[in-house]
Amino acid sequence: MSIFEGLRFRPGKSFIHRIDPRVKLSISIFILSLAAIYVDIIVLTLLISVEAFTVARAGVLRLWLRTLRGSIYLALLVFIITLVTRLLPGGPLAESLGYAVTYTYRLVVFLTSFSLFFLTTTPEEIALTLSRLRIPYEYIFAFVSAIRFTPVLADEMRSIMDAQRSRGLELDRGRLLSRVRKLIPVLIPLLVNVLRRSYELAEAMEVKCFGASKKRTYLRDLNIKPSDYAILAAAITLFATAIYLRVMGYAPLQILTGLELFNGM
Amino acid sequence: MQAIVFDGVSYVYPSGVRALKDVSFTVERGELVVLMGENGSGKTTILKHLNGLLKPTSGKVFVDGLDTSKYTVAQLATHAGLVFQNAENMFFESTVWDEVAFALKNFGYSDDVVRKRVDWALRFFDLERYAGQSPFTLSGGEKKRLAFAVVLAWSPPIIALDEPTIGQDSLQKEKMLHMIRLLNTQGHTVIMASHDVEFVADLRPRIIAISSGSIVADGPADEILPDTEILRRCSLHPPQLALLMARLRDLGMPRKLVDVDTAARLLVERLRP
């Protein structure tokens, strides 16, 4: 469940927190796109170092690392699946391992790319960013609520697990199938509580006249600063260069000799 | 033999919050203890140590003589039954009967014993007529009673209750009071977290007052509840009777008094010409 920690906003006053959310969103999208087009361990390492550096500057490195830790199981699954599907048709072990490692690595970069945005941007700023992108407020509200309630749900799931364990439920014992069946006492109360909460939320929204006027105004507005433009310009330049290199067919690993192993990716 | 021993227990949550700081106390078998303290003082953290949901970061917890760090939650739960604060949000079975049977089946009781115990628990909590209904159709008070029945069905020697009176009306609280007393006289050790001073005053238990993870006082209700200094440290207000007695000191009323019957008798004695 710690994978959701990456969605939980932590208030802060760091330089990263003050960057315009649209710029941060762009950077997250750049990182995600680069991870999608480069299957190259060096590029991925570069990307993850950029992420690590930024979250460290924002003072949320520990939370970000927890997201990483939470993604271990998913990463492990991808690793095994890739390795098996490469080995079975008779692929050489070294090459298959190379693919498995890189694909897993790429997944981790995928999963963490948006933490940079979510960890340092208030839900209000996220809503503002989306509204600037002309997305209807109903959808924005649904999206922001989903983000806001995910960590709440994770907490709730933990306390339901505690209650059912107190009633003698042993979640971590037995065969896989019986373990899955043991999730029923956890998932049903969770679902019931989610439904109850959504009704409560709907009522609270109506009380506060949700949707009363077509044009919404906001308490705060987004103001892009010169420093934001500078950061955006730098990010775009790097992104464009990376795309150009990729289109020209350069990938660091192919250039480096002695690592023929990863060729052809 | 002692039911519960906390020996220099400290607990730090993974988030880094130090919830308990060197907490030590002992609860004898058959005692009735209430943990009082402000929100976040560590009451629930203490209760979660009783069935091993939490293991001490340092120090030792013994429940029924068992070192909790060496046993699983399922093993300890048969010794200490924990009723959660919002336990009524944890139901999942299709009938009230099955809901009560769930834990008994987990603990491996035979069908015959399961049937007997479920019937007993439903009778004890006055829920027999709902046996075939969905738990979700019950009223708030009935759900609360079901939450108790669910844990008491296996009759754990130690019963831990987390804020049982929250959101309950006075009739329900009175039922709860009788039930807790009854269980206690039947020999169960009852440990409960609460900041409902009036409810606790009626129960007149031993009180352990906690503030930010440390014990600030430990003694009988008659001593602790009228003590404004201790209560203030726990963000609590004395029960009304204690406040009244404090005001009537000129009449020679004892300051440490939380029992309505005694207070009424003494007042009548002094006021009758």
Structure report:
The complex is a heterodimer of chains A (265) and B (273). Chain A is an all-alpha fold. Chain A has 2 domains: 2-121 and 225-262, no CATH class; 134-207, no CATH class. In chain A, 71% of the residues lie in helices and 0% in strands. Chain A is built from 13 helices and no strands. Chain A has helices at residues 15-18, 21-37, 41-57, 61-70, 72-87, 93-113, 115-120, 123-132, 137-166, 176-181, 184-207, 226-247, 252-255. Residues 261-265 of chain A have low confidence and may be disordered. Chain B is of the alpha/beta class and 273 residues long. Chain B has 2 domains: 1-79 and 156-221, P-loop containing nucleotide triphosphate hydrolases (Rossmann fold), CATH 3.40.50.300; 91-155, no CATH class. In chain B, 38% of the residues lie in helices and 23% in strands. Chain B has a 6-stranded mixed β-sheet, sandwiched between helices. Chain B has a 4-stranded antiparallel β-sheet with strand order 2-1-4-5, covered by helices on one side. In chain B, a hairpin with a 5-residue loop joins strand 1 and strand 2 (18-28). The radius of gyration of chain B is 20 Å and the shape is globular. Chain B starts with a strand and ends with a helix. The mean pLDDT of chain B is 91. Chain A binds chain B through residues 159-160, 162-170, 184-185, 188-189, 192-193, and chain B through 48, 51, 53, 72-74, 77-78, 81-82, 84, 86-87, 89-92, 102-103, 106-107, 136, 150-151.
Note the run of SSEs of chain A as H and E: HHHHHHHHHHHHH
Q: How many structural domains are formed by the residues of chain B?
A: 2
- Residue stretches of chain B low in confidence (pLDDT < 50, at least 5 long) are none
Inertia-based shape of chain B: globular
Average pLDDT over all residues of chain B: 91
Give the largest chain-chain interface (CB within 8 Å).
Answer: A-B, 17 and 24 residues
Rounded Rg of chain B: 20 Å
Principal-axes geometry of chain A comes out as: flat
Q: Could you tell me how far the N terminus lies from the C terminus of chain A, measured between alpha carbons in angstroms?
A: 33 Å
Question: Into which percentage range does the β-strand content of chain B fall?
Answer: 15-25%
- Helical content band of chain A: over 70%
Number of helical elements of chain A: 13
